[in-house]
Amino acid sequence: MICLRYAHNKAVAEDMLQEGLISVFKDLRQFDPGKAAFSAWSNKVMVNAALQHLRKWKKLSFDQQLEDYENQLVNNDDVMGSLGTKELMKFVQRLPDGYRVVFNLYVIEGYKHKEIAAILSISESTSKTQLLKAKKMLRNQLETVLEY
Amino acid sequence: MADNLESYFKKHLSDDSPSADNWNVPSDKVWENVLPVIQKKRGLFIPWRYFYLMGGLILAALLLMLLWPASLPEIQPANQDLQTKIEETAVSPPENTQTVIREDSEEFIAEKDNSISQKISTDRKGEMAENEASIPENTVAAGTSDKTAVRQKAKVKQIDYTGGAVYINNSNEGLAHFSEDDERENGQLTALSFRPADSIIFEEPVFLPNSGVAVKASLPETETARGKEPFDNKGKIGMGAFFAPTLTSTFLKGELNTGLMEAGNMFLYAGNWGFELKYHISNRFTLVAGIEKSEIKSWSKSLVDFGYDSSTEYMMDNGEKENTSAVPMPTPFGEIATEITYRFPGEQEIPDGEIMQSVLETHQEIRYFSIPLGIEFNIIRFSRFNWFAETGVRYNRALKDATQFTSRILHNGDEMQVVAEEMTSHPAYTENYLNFYIGTGVNYQFSKSFQISGSARYFGSITNVNLQDNMSTYVHGFSLKIGISYLF
Q1: How close is the nearest chain B Cα to the Cα of A20, in Å?
Q2: Which residues of chain A are in CATH 1.10.10.10 domains?
């Protein structure tokens, strides 16, 4: 699920997962049971692997305009029914990389903007802007589906 | 504070439980790819630390080889016994006398003459003349067999000993070595060798006839003395062959206009070999040129979008749909055209022009005819070993290529079953490219004519091997070169 949230499709998510699993095995010695649960530690490794994958394949861009992506909003048969996890995941996956990463780090992982700024080497204000734009885009998608 | 939207997404997306339709369950391919890595069975991947380890081992081996001969105490123990014995019975030798070789030591003399190969090889008249001229006044000339007369240059003191070989160096500077054969040939006395006195070894105390002189001390081992005199290769030309196991990898600069491509640090093995000519400009610098068969190999992964063409779709008897799409795929060596056939459930409708995704993984190699041109610099010269640094450029002309690939087709993130894949065009790589090399190694010279060498090299691109969109492909690699050459 972590990788699906950070990728824009399942294939990329599987690549992230693959790299993440390898990292987990490689860094297993660094895991300290006294500091955190294994699931929390491995989740963190997975998030790092996902970010690393995004950096490697395509530089994360934080200066994209929302307008560039509004035309990507499509009516999808999948979301006509009740909005389940799969549909919400697709909404998130449709976000531009920068929006998606900040949204995930802030909303799901629970990082503060200051921490996100340090992780992604961006300013706090950029992190806040990216989150706002991500939420705006998600809200638009939800509204589009509900209107439909 | 989290608003409703945040809470709504967090609630749903934090749920890691597998769904009924397995949309959030990874395919088996993930484990298939992960397992070989964590079991360390991917032999082609060479982490950097193994390179450092290999380099360290090679360096240690070379140092051991260099230091080993010097640490062998072959002569000293015997000499110490000899020394004691001589001192008990010795008569004081004349001033400056250091070395005598016995009358019956013809074989011994011959053996030592052979071991001192370079100076003895100075059968060229110019050098002989030079040697003769530089013989000090107190040097004694001697022959090496019964047939060889003991001769004396005008300025050389003579010892009257005609029964065989006598070697004496009164000057502590050198020893002239004359032969009857040369005298006969040239009509005059000719020096065959001129060597330091301390290059002579004797095994037991010897008395000089007609002088009552006994030699008091032994002299150092011949090889040790030779250490001061490396082979003189100046002006020589070497011709040889070499084998160079090489690990190569591609790396990319820039970005594709469409699609994504990755070429990781996957170093792949190539067995290069060739022939080379060496010209020893001096004993320090050597020019190297040759011809070589070289290869570069590459692994890559690319992701591209393509439009679905429903006109080629057809329904199979088993209710599945099948289609074949032409997918242009970027690779490090240029774009290749592929045709990929895939199947999906019959009830799935894919509109014409729908964006599909394809993931391609390639292993490629290009074979080149190469012409290297470089220079070697001898950093440290020993009697037989040279430690050298080398650098140069290599022109490469492509001869042939080979590509193997696997592909995946996805629609909205759902993977389709690929049943056939075909490459319909070869990559359009650059046929000519230049690279450079830099390295270090050692030469070992068996004799004045034979030399073996080993070196470790790093290769890097000067020009790219391919340019597509805004992305260039470069190659780098490491090789161990082992060669043998004949000097003439």
Answers
A1: 10
A2: 61-148
